[in-house]
Please model this.
Amino acid sequence: MSEVFRCGVIAVVGRPNVGKSTLVNALLGEKVAIVSPRPQTTRTAIRAIVNEPGAQLVLVDTPGVTTLRTALHKAMRRSVANSTADADGVLLVAEVHGDTPNVGDEEQRALDTARASGRPLVVALNKVDKLRRKEQLLPWLAHFEQTLGARCVVPVSALRKDGIDPLRRELIALLPEGEAIFPADLYTDQAERFLCAELVLEQLILHTREEIPHSAAVVIDSFEDERDNAERPICRLTGRIIVERESQKGVVVGKGGVRIKSMSQAARPQIEALLGSQVYLRLTVEVDPNWTRNESAVHEHGYGMNERLP
Model:
């Protein structure tokens, strides 16, 4: 009798900056989702494919659930709704803060999204490494078990990779029996061009901090793949950073171009690791004052287009 193989999709939801992307990367063991200490780094659903003996777990890292109302944020909320509707289960990522469970507006919206999906639910209580005392966990564990009817609540530290193996086992237990969706050597189905843009966006957020809002976007316009060149394998990328105001363009470029050069230098090694070759990266900055408020522009820049699984 052959062993049972499980395969399915788990949507990862939570409020902005709760550590969803860090947790997805930890569960995968690879970097597929960009991470920064600023909220709303993830703009669109990103699939990470965890291949284990006897199982293939497809994690969909969704944008943080927010109450903001621009076309960009509406597209992000649609991405979350579509991802949970298509999933076999939901992983709600929450953060422990204080001795008494205290849920704000954005966290409540994330809870409501998880509950409304009707899918089997696992809760990851993240950032437990910040707790002064382990007893602080107890009321939080009871809160999520009682209010959401979660299958289980798993304390984790995504940053330190604590609790990752038990959480992975619980998620695999939610999956239905079935054949693998993706090849066993694949860890994401995202196009390389998209992943390169995400790595540039990560550096943009890290380098500009509070000076540039999260409405900036990165588009890779040209991707010349010469990795089959035996003498000099290389990928040549040309991309645009889109901001809303002329003053923001000056912040991104920096005096004498020093900041955009620094961002390019920081992103390049990660892109080279992703592509497995030397990379030439050229970035420019464009001002589009209405792109976050215009739905067609939001889609043009790659957000809100949540493709279904094959």
Q: What stands out?
A: Strands lie at 6-13, 46-52, 55-61, 89-95, 121-126, 152-155, 217-226, 234-243, 278-287. Confidence is low (pLDDT under 50) at residues 36-43, 64-79, 305-310. The longest strand covers residues 217-226.
